[in-house]
Design goal:
about 350 residues, alpha/beta, 6-stranded mixed beta sheet, 4-stranded parallel beta sheet, about 45% helix, globular
Length: about 350
């Protein structure tokens, strides 16, 4: 093993040791607590690169280096305009590697600025469906490595443990009144996180349901219902970080117990409702997760079941001040959020 690889392993390990585990908040929702139902939110926004994708990016670099695909000076290319690109730029800088994110030209300027601030560069394409081929071609031209989160997300992460998010959730829940969650609710972008959680639940024999939520303009839900992995759509998700126009290789429907589709207006209403409960801004995918968790909680309350539900805050809302937290943008996209907000307030 060369000196660069040994040092890279040390740097990645030291980053993990410096990053204390993320907080697990129990949300104050009186209408559910009285019914014996607790909802928990695992805050992944506190990672050094600001999102759940910090875990994935570290795993992808470990996988690529240990597989001999990334060495000293290897250009790293990824197809991502969101949090994965930001997190991979963070680790590329840590390891002294050049990094390029391939993204649609319509990507928000704040995301581009974050990647560039971390030393990465951005390569633009016209449509989101073009990012895969463009990233692969760019890697070939530069004799670099296409990280390909969509293919390797489910295999790069050690789903048996080793500080993965599933192990962290169940460890943190051990002393709660409903220690084994009735359900874990998670949205799908690559499908890697839901694959890790689903596998871990089965590996440990937990009596926990994995519920995956999907936004509008995403193919995962319909593919799951029809059991057809070949489905595609032309539209792009308005909820950044989740939803895809094709079924990604890392999406494993076999480990999922149920899928729910969440309207985009409901996702946005949920993050504003959450801010009132928690005093924190969150990204749109967190709203999708929370709406799904509350849907499951309402079903449990109706059926007289007690238990806990765990979901994720995938990233902070500071990245979305010009969209999800801009009143005019919301009105242009969705009109009024009164109807979903009224449903959310019913839990109080």
């Amino acid at each position: 093993m060369c000196e660069w690889v040994r040092n890279a392993m040390r740097l990645l390990d030291s980053d993990q040791r410096r990053s204390a585990d993320t907080h697990l908040y129990r949300l104050d929702i009186p209408g559910l607590e009285a019914a014996g139902i607790d909802i928990y939110l695992k805050d992944e926004s506190t990672h050094p690169s600001g999102s759940l994708k910090h875990r994935l990016a570290r795993s992808l670099f470990l996988h690529a280096i240990c597989s001999g695909k990334v060495q000293e000076g290897t250009p790293v290319i990824e197809a991502s305009s969101g949090s994965t690109a930001v997190s991979e730029a963070y680790f590329a800088r840590l390891l002294g590697l050049p990094f390029t994110a391939v993204m649609p030209a319509s990507t928000a300027g704040s995301k581009i600025a974050q990647i560039e601030r971390l030393g990465g560069t951005c390569h633009f394409v016209k449509r989101s469906s073009q990012v895969y081929m463009a990233a692969r071609q760019l890697a070939e031209e530069r004799e670099g490595h296409y990280m390909d989160q969509f293919t390797y997300a489910e295999s790069a992460t050690d789903w048996r443990g080793n500080n993965n998010i599933a192990e962290s959730i169940f460890r943190q829940m051990e002393k709660e009144r409903h220690a084994t969650p009735y359900a874990v609710v998670m949205s799908a972008g690559t499908g890697g996180t839901s694959a890790t959680i689903g596998r871990y639940i089965r590996y440990c024999g937990h009596a926990t349901r994995l519920v995956v939520v999907d936004p509008e303009n995403s193919v995962f839900h319909d593919s799951y219902q029809q059991r057809d992995p070949s489905l595609t759509i032309e539209a792009s998700s308005r909820i950044e970080g989740i939803g895809r126009p094709r079924v990604e290789p890392s999406f494993l429907p076999e480990v999922i117990d149920e899928m729910l589709q969440v309207a985009d207006a409901s996702s946005i209403a949920a993050i504003h409702w959450l801010e009132q409960r928690l005093g924190r801004k969150a990204g749109g995918s967190t709203g999708t997760n929370l709406w799904g968790a509350l849907t499951i909680a309402e079903r449990m309350r109706h059926d007289g079941h007690q238990g806990s539900i765990v979901t994720l805050m995938c990233d902070g809302g500071e990245r979305y001040l010009d969209t999800y937290y801009d009143v005019d943008w919301i009105k242009r996209q969705f009109g009024s959020l009164e109807q979903p907000t009224t449903w959310l307030n019913s839990f109080l």
